[in-house]
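User: Hey, my collaborator sent me this sequence without any context and asked if I could get a structure. I don't really work with proteins. Can you help?
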Amino acid sequence: MSPGLGVHVQLPAAAATAAEAADAKLGQDTVVLAMTELFGVVDAFVITSAPNSRHVRTLVEEIERQVKETHQLAPVRVEGLADATWVLMDYGDFIVHVFLQETREYYDLEHLWSGAPRVEWRSAVKHVG
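Assistant: No problem. I've predicted the 3D structure and written it out in structure-token form, which is a compact way to encode the shape of the chain:
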């Protein structure tokens, strides 16, 4: 079991919405890492992946739509959409990483940030008001 798996931390509600949106569009292995203690710049990383670039773009569009609709937030910056192997969506308080599956395996952010607790985002979504 990973350290901190399922811990309850203060997760930005929009980050939980982003994770739920990715999951609803069949994002693979969607995880949320609590980054405040380790990184300090953002509260959370949402990480998900897809088997092809078309699916990566679909995930990015759905995440952006759901977060905008639910929280009236748009990303400050979106990078990587042109080749869609690793799209980074910067929302200020949290960052969404949408990977092509092979790119996710190569960079392995979950291992790089293995000290970051995994957040149980499904229960966080249910508690969003």
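In plain terms: The longest strand covers residues 28-34. You can pass these tokens on to your collaborator as they are.
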